[in-house]
Amino acid sequence: MRHRKSGRKLGMNSSARKAMFRNMVTSLMLHGTIRTTEARAKELRWVADKVITLGKNAPSPAAIDLLEGDARQQARARRVHALRQAQLLVGDDAALDKVFGEYAQRFRTRPGGYTRVIRAGRRDGDNAEMAVVQLVEAYDPSAKAEEAAPAAEAAPAEEPAAAEEIEEEAEITEEEGEE
Questions:
Q1: Cα(35)–Cα(85) distance, rounded to whole angstroms?
Q2: pLDDT tens by residue, 109-130
Q3: Domain 14-137, CATH 3.40.50.1820 — does that match?
Q4: Integer angstrom CA distances of residue 44 from 52, 75, 79, 151, 162
Q5: What's the average model confidence in pLDDT over 152-157?
């Protein structure tokens, strides 16, 4: 029985599995989306979320520059430690720069769940369930408000026009009824 054993074996030994996840996380961080089997995608989520959390929680260089003395040294040490932990899971410097730069800012206010898994049908060769793993977009309340505002402004403008059309149709039917 596999009680209290987390994670899927995926038909490989632990070193091969770690190497595969390292490659997949690196590709995900570089490209923002990858296509893989559904089981691998579901296992990849926690690895990718862990890497982004490391980048998000590490102090930024701008924040370190504002500190002085012991606090600055401790913040610098925390950032180096987070970078080294992330290097164990991300194999490319460009991807690591994205994690600690772009993604750290993008997901600053998001509490977790940085990835989404979307089913993508079955693979032709072996009929395996495929899925697409993507990084979710950051929640921007101003963008949602801007999208809702034009729709709200357009809706009242359309309603009077529709009401006028109904009144005209009613007048036409009344005229036809009188004749």
A1: 25
A2: 999 999 999 999 999 999 999 9
A3: no
A4: 12, 29, 24, 38, 52
A5: 48
CA distance linking residue 112 with residue 115, whole number of Å: 9
Unique residue bearing structure tokens 């996840």: 21
What pLDDT, on a 0 to 100 scale, did the predictor assign at position 160?
A: 46
Classify residue 48 by burial, with Cβ atoms within 10 Å: 0-12, 13-18, 19+.
Answer: buried
SS3 annotation, the chain: CCCCCCCCCCCCCHHHHHHHHHHHHHHHHHHCEEEEEHHHHHHHHHHHHHHHHHHHHCCCHHHHHHCCHHHHHHHHHHHHHHHHHHHCCCCCHHHHHHHHHHHHHHCCCCCCCCEEEEEEEECCCCCCEEEEEEECCCCCHHHHHHHHHHHHHHHHHHHHHHHHHHHHHHHHHHHHHHC
Global pTM value: 0.73
> Binning pLDDT at 50, 70 and 90, where does residue 149 land?
low
What gap in Å lies between CA 53 and CA 86, rounded to an integer?
10
